[in-house]
Amino acid sequence: MSGGLLVAGTTSDAGKSVVTAGICRWLVRRGVKVAPFKAQNMSLNSFVTREGAEIGRAQAMQAQAARVEPSALMNPVLLKPGGDRSSQVVLMGRPVGEMSARGYHGGRQEALLGTVVDCLEQLRTTYDAVICEGAGSPAEINLRRTDIVNMGIARAARFPVLVVGDIDRGGVFASFFGTTALLSPEDQSLIAGYLVNKFRGDVSLLEPGLDMLLGLTGRRTYGVLPYAHGLGIDEEDGLRVSMRGTVRESVVAPPHGEDVLRVAVCAVPLMSNFTDVDALAAEPGVVVRFVDRAEELVDADLVIVPGTRGTVKALAWLRERGLADALLRRAAEGRPVLGICGGFQVLGERIEDDVESRAGLVEGLGLLPVRVRFGREKVLARPVGTALGEPVEGYEIHHGVAEVSGGEPFLDGCRVGSVWGTHWHGSLESDAFRRAFLTEVARAAGRRFTAAPDTSFGALREEQLDRLGDLIEEHADTDALWRLIETGAPEGLPFLAPGTPPAPGLAQGKQPGLAPGTPEGPGRPVPGGQGPVAAGRESADVTVTEEAP
């Protein structure tokens, strides 16, 4: 079996995804055959593998960092939120039902442990190393009993755990200590140490704190990564943009022609695959903004209605905010609009939905001659074709089936005047097609914009992944990291009190106080505080029944 490591975090968005990708790129550059893995992912930002399986887009990005083909083995469980209390459960790349959060954490999640362990073991038989990514924080003690993505998988595989903390948020030392101290003795024995992320300033000023953290926890810090601007790497758990700002941290390069091109993306509810616009933001002179007000469309040269997990909900939102009327005015004036997936469906004549929203027949915006009927079977595909005279490829993830009755053909969708619609995600990553599309947009918008002839989105992505590998190689103790991957967590790591609190309903003995802030003494475990040992394997044949939200 191969070695491995679990990258956990003190919080969501601490940097687990990018650190995992950086470690994968660092390892593959030194000749290690490595694969990423995330047992369970909650994200609306997904991808379709070549075998037609849906996985988190972050894992697809990590696979690219590792220079391997993405596979359903790398993300066996994907949860796609449909609201605050329910998600679609995608198991081994295929949807198996809609489930409430209570139902999932009430026992169904635990039943998936055998499946995710099987996937991890298959990867370990093929690769020299597997770098796992956790979710949220391992110290979410309310969910520990059913955990299959943090300490549950670490215990099953006996993988050491590296905890990442975002120092830019503040409180990183307390977060490291508290994350460790809330775990059971068995879980704490796998917490090998820490990695500080997004540090600004002089590292020498941080070092006394790192020394004190070592004294308090008996665990070292494996690196301090500086704050890096403009990485633009695929996000996982949420859309990290300012609603009034440009796409994430991208920097707009000077235009190749005389004018810039302004792109407004409607920030619809349950927005999915917002990475579709990353390739536009990479173009010199293209300014991409997410908007939620009608007046923000006025000066846009192109408006994009993106994908969404809630097409009918997005349509209602557009109408409530006046954005629907603004889109109708744009179309009447011949100003460009692009709908992608759910956004394409919104632009059609009508939507018949007894699956996603169960709203029945709903009138669309009527900008395209398209009627959409939602089917229970999800379409998952990797189409290729030509459009605007250029080769293009993408991927499809949708329940809505479109019946196109007019217009010009466009990527299995259609075009009417300056309004385009397609189910294809990722099409704008095809460089020649993107340039041709932007040329059409600029002409319709009356802009003297010229697409740069040499922008390669694939090359830019490789540069970003290399930057992540550089961050690990230059700012982490890579020799020590490799020892962790090869040999596991160090022996004799001290226990930090109080450990996991006792479960409700168990005998409540006298509880120890909080640790006194010194490294002396191993503390003692709390009665009833040990979580379930993840050694018992369960069947990989798991059926999730449909459940009302």
Question: Can you lay out the helices and strands and say which pair or pack?
Answer:
Layout: E1 3-9, H1 16-29, E2 34-37, E3 40-42, E4 46-48, E5 54-56, H2 57-66, E6 77-81, E7 86-91, E8 94-100, H3 101-111, H4 113-126, E9 129-133, H5 151-157, E10 161-166, H6 172-181, H7 185-188, E11 191-199, H8 207-217, E12 220-226, E13 261-266, E14 271-272, H9 278-281, E15 286-291, E16 302-305, E17 307-308, H10 311-320, H11 323-332, E18 337-340, H12 342-346, E19 350-353, E20 360-363, E21 370-381, E22 384-387, E23 390-393, E24 396-404, E25 408-410, E26 413-416, E27 419-422, H13 431-445, H14 457-475, H15 478-487
Parallel strand pairs: 1-9, 1-10, 2-9, 3-6, 10-11, 11-12, 13-15, 13-16, 16-18, 18-27, 19-21
Antiparallel strand pairs: 4-5, 6-7, 7-8, 14-17, 19-20, 21-24, 22-23, 25-26, 26-27
Helix pairs in contact: 1-2, 1-14, 4-5, 6-8
In words, what does this structure look like?
By secondary structure, the protein is an alpha/beta fold. The chain contains 15 helices and 27 strands. The protein has a seven-stranded mixed β-sheet. Strand 4 (46-48) and strand 5 (54-56) form a beta hairpin. Helix 1 packs across helix 14 and helix 4 (113-126) crosses helix 5. The protein is globular and about 70 Å long. The two termini are 41 Å apart. 52% of the residues are buried.
Tell me the overall shape.
globular
Would you identify the regions where 5 or more consecutive residues have pLDDT less than 50?
237-250, 503-513, 518-549
Main sheet properties: 7 strands, mixed
Radius of gyration: 24 Å
Order of neighbouring strands in the sheet with most strands: 15-13-16-18-27-26-25
Helical content stands at: 25-40%
Distance between the termini: 41 Å
Structural class, from helix and strand content?
A: alpha/beta
Integer average pLDDT: 86
Percent range for β-strand residues: 15-25%
Number of helices in the DSSP assignment? 15
Per DSSP E runs of 2 or more residues, the count of β-strands stands at 27
